[in-house]
Amino acid sequence: MKKTPSVILASILAGFILGVLLFSYFSFEIAIGLSVASICFVLGLFKGRGSSPLLSKEGSGVVIVLFAVSLVFGAFRLSLAVPSNASVAHNVGGVRSVVGVVMKQETGEGSQKITLGDLVVDGDRRDDLVQIFTNAYPKAELGDRVAVECELEKPEPIEGFAYDRFLAAKHIYATCYSRRTPFVMEKGARQDVVILIRKVHEDAVGLVAKYFGEPHAQLLSGLLLGDDNFSDAWKEKFRRTGTSHVVAASGYNIALVSSLALAFLIYAGLKRQYAFPFVILAIAGFVILAGGEAAVTRAGIMGAVALTATQLGRKSSARNALLLVAAVMLLIEPRILRDDAGFQLSVLSTAGLIFISKPIAEKLGFIPEMFGLRESFSSTLAATTFTLPVIIFGFGRISIVGPITNLLVLPFLPYAMAAGTAGIALTMFVNAFFSAVPSVFLVPGWFFLEIILRIIDAMSALPFAVLPL
After folding, report:
1. Residues 424-435: tens digit of each pLDDT
2. Hey, what domains does the chain have and what are their CATH numbers?
């Protein structure tokens, strides 16, 4: 009887998530059929369980009804995820005069990608965002109000990848290509918390690049900051070896940060219950350094949920906490369930930490607990195991060497993060007193990064590394 409220809450949340899922992936007719089948399954699962220790007979009826209602509500919420009448989506086609604030800037090979918000298109205010592709220099600055004339286009799928849906989940409904860099109308027109956090991220990435050369700086930035700024050649190597999640701002990185911070604090002498709030602060710091993007913010929330659930020591509470956070995120933007790999990775990696991290640690008795190595390894392995399906199928091909490569690089990731961070901090401290002095403190970090890169490079070169689907 005591479990009844917990099961009822789980049924509501699971029903809503399932409603979003079915109507995201399937046609309306098939989704209806699967919805009815799901309700019948739950009905059969709890029918006649009046004597069950799990639920009372009355509780079983409540679960079935609430599950069905929540499923319908999930489908209804998804149907509302369309551009408003004031959206820039209605301005695509033809050359337009676009004025907006730079909300995000990414530099690629010979070009830059700028995301504009606070839009004014042809003199009218518009909702949502525009993505502009233009020359790499001069680099657009976050918070500046800029103007550009270009042809707004509706995003289209690219080589089987639903690029239009991917952007729509981020509220980007128009793109344009301009040979002229947008004209800066007002420097620092917007200086809110979002802009400031993203500037902190840019400064952190620049700091890593100052002390480590390519591609070591990119790898460390990916591990510490979720910054995926590799060359196309290296991105392909990560894809071929199934290790792209290593340099993405996702739950995988949160798992690394939290397990590393917890292990360090416990080794330093703090008990787990006292270390817990400091680990939460470490996650918050990672989210800020990673730029506060929606994907990493969700991953941070998921990581905090996993740690809180572990602290409570109850899997039912952990399950409901995970379902609650996922449901709230889908209530805000339901399209991320299908079209945002960051959300998928966050949910799955958190589930891995909750349900299999501890059993894995118990099986790894041969790994020493010194420096928290066993806990760090088990947490990372749990997150990797649960996220592997998304990594495999998200790129439309299977990395044959992916599992082996992940197992090979897995032990070196925490050391690369810790040694790299410590090396930069110590080098900055030394250079504050003795300028332009080469620092040996960077060598350990470089060494671990080099091992990871060499493993990925060697495994990606194997002719049978990838099996196209």
Report:
1. 888 887 777 776
2. 4-79 (no CATH), 88-186 (2.40.50.140), 207-463 (no CATH)
